[in-house]
DUF5316 domain-containing protein
Amino acid sequence: MKKAIYFGFGIASLLFILGYFLKNAHLFGSIAMGIGLIFFAIGGLSGGAFIDGNQLRANFHTETKEDRGKRQKIILISGVIAIPNFAAGVLLFMV
């Protein structure tokens, strides 16, 4: 989990610094928002946010507790990576 936090903040910090010092904040803000969107999509696909209730119920009853734990870990890690990138994108658009 710590690696995901460091990875997310590392990418966000790098994009923020590059965008600020290269005077191209909108480009790097768009890149940061894109990275955040990709990781949110990964979390949504892993969590079943894009399927209907019947399919979600069927998936829930056929998976084991270990598989459910792995899936929830993927959701958490992708969210932890996405949030700092969205924040960096918003800050870069405000600069």
